[in-house]
Amino acid sequence: MKHETWQAWLAAGALVVSSGASAGTLEDVQNRGHVICGVDGGLPGFSAPDDAGKIRGIDADVCYAVAAAVLGDRESVKFVPLTAKERFTALSSGEIDVLSRNTTHTLTRDASLGLNFTYYNFIDGQAFMAKKDLGVNSAKELDGARVCVQSGTTTEINLADYFRSNKMDFELVAYETSVQTREGFEGGACDVLTSDKSQLAAIRSELADPSSAQVLPETISKEPLGPVVRQGDDAWFNTVKWTLWAMMNAEELGVSSANADQMRSSEDPSVLRLLGLEGDSCQLISDKLSKDCFYQAVKQVGNYGEIYEANVGENTPLGLTRAGSPNDLWSRGGLIYAPPVR
């Protein structure tokens, strides 16, 4: 399974050379009138439909923000649900403009697929979720366990490495999607489910009885997750990357969706540059962007703290506390650190 996975990824990278993917994604998006965004589509907190069928989540909000920055309308997005195996091929071939699907930045993906990782909208790590009646309290007690996993992810590699380094055996039970993996775990096809901790929280929240499962304490990997674009298109790469960074800078500067208009009268030059009232920050990226592209993203979607709390924070079904986590701002001890807009 792992061998097939790497073959698929490398084949996806090779498509970059032959596909003739557009070198002007920003222009293509503006001419088309909407951003085509690849997402999971079934992972609560990251990208999943709400009761009205609208895609919600921290990955989806990146897409809404890019649409607001590029087109002035956050709703100008077409979402394409993709499995883990499909995602890189879809981006390389030009089927989508940006991949915002809880995707880990690794050396192999960065160096061999013809893709650029922008920055991180969630910093995660892999763990295990076990049924409480299994009677284990540590991943070190999982020798011989049947492990449910979503195929085509870094999760499989981390799983094999962890069991090998701890001289334990396991039986792999692989599925194509997050939903199928949850159903396999809940239906008894495996003893434990392994994925990123945020995904475990999302999957656990959707179990018929969430209290029947517990996340074991060990974190076995680093999983920096963020949006991805094709290589060879710097204007689009910078547009997506700086839209995300602008949302992080907005939180640092106290600019939110609620006060963005009021903050336009600020005397802080950093705020004025962010909102497009001084300098030409957006147009340094591309003269096809409006001067207020970052203002549009923050006004219409929110700053980083807003989208975190709305989608995965303590008052959501995922209940992921941000304070003290890597996803807090650097100024509060976290790892969220965006270069300045100047």
TrEMBL record:
Keywords: Signal, Transport. It comes from the Bacteria. Residues 34-263 form the Solute-binding protein family 3/N-terminal domain. InterPro entries: Bact_solute-bind_prot3, Solute-binding_3/MltF_N. Residues 1-23 form the signal peptide. CDD domains: PBP2_BztA (cd13692). Belongs to the bacterial solute-binding protein 3 family. This is Amino acid ABC transporter substrate-binding protein. The lineage of its organism: Bacteria, Pseudomonadati, Pseudomonadota, Gammaproteobacteria, Candidatus Tethybacterales.
